[in-house]
Amino acid sequence: MKTALALHERLSATPSPPNSKFAALAKALIRRFPVEVGGAEDSAEDPCGEPGAWVESRPDGSTDTAVYSMAVYEDGVEVLLPLLIDTATALGLTVYDDQAGQVFLPDGGVLDSEGRIERRVVAPKAVAYEPLSPTIAKAALKTIVAVQLKPFAFRYKVEHGGVSFRRKTPAGEQILYIILRQTSGIHLSLGAELELDLPAELAQIVAPQTSVQLLLGSCKALQQFAIPVPGNDPWPTSELYNMKDLQQWCQLYVDMLLEEVLPLLDVCRVASGLLDCDDHIDRYQVRLWPSLATLALAKFVGAPDWIGRVQRYRVRLAQFMRHPTPWSEPKIAALAALPDVT
Length: 342
Prior knowledge:
It is a single chain. 37% of the residues lie in helices and 18% in strands. The protein is built from ten helices and twelve strands. The protein has helices spanning 2-12, 20-32, 80-90, 134-149, 200-206, 243-267, 271-279, 292-301, 306-320, 328-336, and strands at 95-97, 102-104, 109-112, 115-118, 155-159, 162-169, 172-182, 186-196, 211-215, 226-227, 237-240, 287-288. Strands 5, 6, 7, 8, 9, 10, 11 and 12 form an eight-stranded antiparallel beta sheet that branches. A hairpin with a 2-residue loop joins strand 5 and strand 6 (162-169).
């Protein structure tokens, strides 16, 4: 142990070029604890939410000597320190804990004042900070979201790459879907659509656009978890890093659905309600994306002023798309050629 301490003192005073292992260690700790170590913003109610509460400063692995030092505070001593030791030694680094008077070696050994001892590997609280995965996210969505949507006749379904909540209505199937993707945490990309129950002839004309997408605007309820997404995405993507955030996100998602989305979906259960929502797009916080399926539905039920609806469709489509797809015009012409419902 005395030899190890003497080596530590000598290396602390020895100039050294940047060590990529120090940087890798810093990135790994931030990835595992983005709030407590990395200083990412978090909820004010989170006791660990103070930016970088477990460390003196955000680690980056930068040092002018052969030793990289970190000060660990509060719960970090019990939760972060074991991970730091496991990660550093796996990288081939030696860790000196001056408070405990122990040196952790890359081969798994520990040196203290009594000599070499067997090291502890598992942190007591490690399970509480299990990294998120699609499997964990699906379980939370089932136990938190699906349970609260069941009284509204939505059924939970595991999909390829995510989950959905579906219910049958006279106008067609209403689908709320969440696409899950593993990152350093977990990405949740939202979507919603109305898969209309159209006659085969009409569905064939407008295919593949037999559904109506929903747009949710800024989606403020989930803004604290939102990340930038490219393009004109009508629904946001969230990124979560721990179970507490996932549980909070699930409840905020349910609250948003009940307050903003379900009022429109309830009206859209029947064709007349859906067409009315399409005519009055500012009535609800959620809007319907301009769709050929809506034009087909209007043709099928004999809604008045079909030509005027087509003109409004073109105007709205131009607002959302810089270059509206020309393939829609032949489909509109095919719908117009069908006899009117009397």
